[in-house]
């Protein structure tokens, strides 16, 4: 245990764009979908872990060549948020594929946290990212499917 400024920065960098939903919510309603409660619990646990664990665990052996991977994942994530804002804030844009990659707005935060785990030599961040992936990606896929069939 210990403080990691880099971990805190990555956590905040992933969280910050999500705060755009407060002043700029989708202009349309999400499609009706049934999400198993266990997935919701796992997703929330993963979100909490990914916010806290990177900041409160000290790095191990730092592998600097992972830093550009983290930066690329964060840049892609921010670009998708920009797409959401510039293309009319449709709920579907939060789940729309890019280059045949399904739910990139769910995948890129997981990639960012897994790459951060490799960068900082910290298996606890990787575990937090796996928990996030186990809930966030299936929920996003279910939402994308419901949105596409609308």
TrEMBL record:
Keywords: Membrane, Transmembrane, Transmembrane helix. The chain crosses the membrane at residues 6-26, 63-86, 98-119, 125-148. This is Uncharacterized protein. It comes from Herbiconiux moechotypicola.
């Amino acid at each position: 245990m210990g403080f990691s400024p880099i971990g805190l920065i990555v956590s905040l960098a992933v969280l910050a764009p999500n705060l755009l939903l407060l002043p700029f919510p989708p202009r349309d309603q999400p499609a009706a979908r049934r999400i198993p409660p266990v997935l919701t619990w796992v997703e929330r646990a993963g979100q909490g872990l990914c916010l806290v664990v990177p900041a409160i665990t000290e790095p191990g052996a730092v592998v600097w060549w992972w830093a550009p991977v983290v930066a690329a994942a964060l840049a892609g994530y921010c670009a998708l948020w920009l797409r959401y804002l510039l293309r009319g804030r449709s709920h579907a844009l939060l789940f729309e594929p890019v280059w045949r990659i399904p739910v990139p707005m769910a995948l890129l935060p997981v990639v960012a946290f897994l790459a951060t785990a490799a960068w900082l030599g910290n298996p606890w961040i990787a575990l937090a990212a796996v928990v996030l992936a186990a809930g966030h990606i299936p929920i996003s896929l279910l939402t994308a499917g419901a949105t596409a069939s609308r």
